[in-house]
Design brief:
mainly alpha, 14 helices
Length: 289
């Protein structure tokens, strides 16, 4: 944030102009820390508003991944007979659905956080990055509830996770970077181009079937020609992170570690590009939103 005291030649009182830092090198994390109270307030508000005036309330946090996993299990495992490597199909799908829900929730909510808070942006100055960051907390809360349900399923089926469970926070970190980077990029575009709000849901719908939620990455590799396989992982780096996420939980799976490492690098790159693009356009948000 820059503050300049400007004084004209005419006998006028000095005034203070407050404007955001702009440019590709203006990502100031210290500024975010200074507004941490606002970040906490907005995150709490997001959680409270999500289930206000809903009959089932927080139960939806449990029902959404359960229903999603149930539908995908029926389609891919019951009808299409997709193998799950000896893991109960619903457990296999539910683990994948947890990763997908985290990704889609962060990306979708981050991309719409600016236009949904248009009045706040036009009237109050604060680091705009606070808005997409604040909505990630409710996504992690949903994941925490889902992991409790996942633990109960593992206990019921007698599945014991291995030491790979220790790597679960790492996959969560890279999934968050990938989703937040995309959310920042789409969110900045959505301020000027409202059409983007229709593009994001379509992309999420396509990704539901293009990602190995109810089937394994090894199935994709076996069905694609050798020359086409790198393109699948190039255009869908989330697929490798999802498989690694599920492997950490259930202790089984054919993880392609080379592609996982590539996906991790892509996640970092997309987050950096998204954050810097967001910051470079931040100064125009209040004028065009």
């Amino acid at each position: 944030m820059n503050a300049h005291t400007i004084q004209n030649d005419a006998p006028q009182r000095p005034y203070l102009r407050v404007q955001p830092d702009t440019g590709w090198l203006a990502l100031n994390l210290k500024e975010i820390w200074r507004f941490r109270d606002l970040l906490s307030t907005l995150a709490t508000r997001d959680v409270k508003l999500r289930y206000r005036q809903t009959a089932l309330g927080v139960i939806w946090v449990i029902l959404q991944p359960l229903l999603g996993a149930g539908i995908l299990t029926f389609v891919f495992n019951t009808l299409l007979k997709a193998p799950t490597g000896g893991v109960p199909p619903f457990v296999f799908s539910f683990a994948g659905m947890l990763a997908f829900t985290l990704f889609s929730s962060i990306l979708t909510k981050a991309s719409t956080s600016l236009v949904q808070n248009a009045q706040m942006i036009s009237k109050v100055f604060f680091p705009r990055l606070i808005l997409p960051l604040s909505v990630t907390f409710s996504s992690f809360l949903d994941l925490a509830v889902g992991l409790v349900v996942m633990a109960l399923l593992l206990l019921f089926y007698g599945i014991m996770p291995g030491f790979g469970l220790l790597l679960l926070p790492l996959w969560m970190f890279f999934i968050t970077l990938l989703a937040l980077g995309g959310g920042l990029f789409f969110g900045a575009l959505m301020v000027s181009y409202r059409d983007v709000q229709y593009v994001v849901p379509v992309l999420m719908s396509l990704l539901t079937f293009a990602s190995p939620i109810a089937y394994s990455v090894s199935l994709v590799i076996s069905r694609l020609p050798m020359a086409s396989r790198p393109f699948y992982f190039l255009f869908n780096p989330f697929a490798s992170l999802l498989e690694a996420f599920r492997w950490s939980i259930i202790g089984r799976g054919d993880v392609q570690w080379g592609y996982v490492a590539f996906a991790a690098l892509v996640s970092v790159a997309i987050f950096i590009v998204g954050a810097l693009a967001f910051k470079s356009m931040e100064g125009k948000f209040a004028d065009v939103i």
